[in-house]
Design a protein that fits this description.
Blueprint: H1 9-32, H2 34-56, H3 59-77
Helix pairs in contact: 1-2, 2-3
Length: 78
């Protein structure tokens, strides 16, 4: 319940997705440690959201994710 009313279908879907992403992050951090687990969680969530964006035809999200990943690579590998 939010603001004294039941959640709409879209609000429930958004809340469930956020909880699922939070669980993914917690599981990966517990398995791999803070730094590596956070990075793996980021990759996993970007993969999920990228797949959804691809299906919806949103190429801007995919470009931004690829640029962010390239920036991380450049920072750590030269």
């Amino acid at each position: 319940m939010s603001a004294g009313r039941p959640l709409t279908k879209a609000e429930r879907k958004k809340m469930n997705r956020a909880e699922h992403e939070r669980k993914i992050k917690q599981d990966l951090i517990a398995q791999h440690g803070t730094d590596l687990g956070t990075f793996y969680a980021w990759l996993r969530i970007v993969n999920i959201r990228g797949t959804q964006a691809y299906r919806d035809g949103d190429t801007q999200f995919i470009r931004e994710a690829a640029l962010a990943l390239h920036n991380v690579y450049s920072r750590h590998c030269g």
